[in-house]
Backbone:
């Protein structure tokens, strides 16, 4: 597999001695199951035709420019998206600066000036809900019509359904904001993950309760305040864990924190960044009348999380186990 290259789309110039590109176009926030179907198709076409598998994506998210008063909180950082693209077999990411000038391009101008003239694409792959051009005047069908006039192969990938409803970044954001991280994981095809640097805490956990690592989250969107069964990747080791998202009301906290207690952790932090993967909601964050009551509740949280992971391990061992149930493809 070729290493992933990330290039400013405005500076990209195709070379005559390199393979042409088959390119997915979109925001790909979350790189969820619907996006993964698109990535699979890109890699398949690239293998079949000896093209290079690529992604054209936008920075910042278009709605941060077009709707700055209420932009979506992103599910993934750029670093996370690039890692997921690479894992799917993409070898080139073209990062297009999105500003008001770019937003004013008509659908015809976008296809002609960007896809045909600048990038010289061999093929483009998009989802069925794809919209583009000034005021989103173009859709997937428009792209197909414009592409056929210029000899550009356009493939439209049907939506992926989970429990009868299309997977979308908006649906995942709603689930995470509600604390429904198990549902979010089904839609993503993996647990929702928060990444960030380990930062020093007040030390109360280690002295009075249980030792925890405090994470300075890089994500714009965090799960609803509460306690979760999680897994925490520290260096190259994955620990089962319990994680609290909130303000620690028992200690009259004001600042939002993400702190995680790792099972079997020896207390030595060998890496300055960690990743916390959210598997299951356990309870609301709340204020306790005493440290003893809080300590007892934490013990119950840890036991519930341990039981959850025992069930998860048993489920994974089933012969016909699948990470997501009821995944379908929408009919055209």
Residues:
């Amino acid at each position: 597999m070729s290493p992933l290259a990330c290039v400013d789309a405005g500076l990209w110039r195709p070379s005559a001695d390199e393979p042409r590109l088959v390119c997915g176009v979109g925001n790909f926030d979350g790189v969820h199951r619907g996006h993964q179907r698109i990535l699979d198709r890109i890699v398949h076409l690239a293998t079949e035709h000896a093209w290079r598998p690529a992604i054209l994506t936008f920075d910042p998210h278009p709605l941060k420019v077009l709707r700055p008063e209420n932009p979506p909180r992103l599910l993934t950082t750029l670093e996370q998206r690039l890692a997921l693209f690479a894992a799917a077999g993409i070898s080139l990411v073209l990062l297009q600066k999105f500003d008001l000038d770019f937003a004013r391009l008509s659908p015809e101008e976008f296809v002609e000036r960007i896809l045909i003239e600048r990038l010289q694409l061999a093929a483009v792959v998009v989802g069925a809900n794809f919209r583009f051009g000034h005021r989103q005047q173009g859709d997937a069908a428009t792209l197909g019509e414009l592409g056929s006039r210029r000899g550009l192969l356009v493939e439209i990938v049907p939506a992926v359904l989970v429990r009868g409803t299309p997977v979308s970044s908006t649906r995942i954001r709603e689930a995470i904001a509600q604390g429904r991280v198990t549902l979010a994981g089904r839609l993503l095809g993996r647990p929702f993950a928060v990444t960030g640097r380990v930062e020093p805490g007040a030390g109360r956990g280690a002295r009075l309760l249980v030792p925890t690592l405090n994470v300075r989250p890089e994500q714009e969107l965090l799960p609803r305040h509460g306690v979760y069964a999680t897994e925490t990747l520290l260096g190259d080791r994955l620990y089962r864990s319990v994680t609290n998202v909130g303000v620690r009301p028992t200690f009259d906290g004001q600042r939002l924190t993400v702190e995680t207690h790792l099972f079997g952790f020896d207390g030595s932090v060998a890496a300055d960044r960690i990743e916390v993967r959210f598997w299951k909601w356990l309870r609301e964050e709340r204020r306790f009348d005493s440290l003893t009551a809080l300590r007892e509740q934490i013990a119950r949280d840890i036991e519930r999380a341990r039981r959850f992971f025992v069930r998860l391990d048993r489920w994974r061992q089933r012969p016909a186990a699948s990470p997501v149930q009821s995944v379908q493809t929408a009919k055209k």
About this structure: The domain at 5-162 is CATH 3.40.50.620 (Rossmann fold). The chain has two domains: 5-162, 191-316.
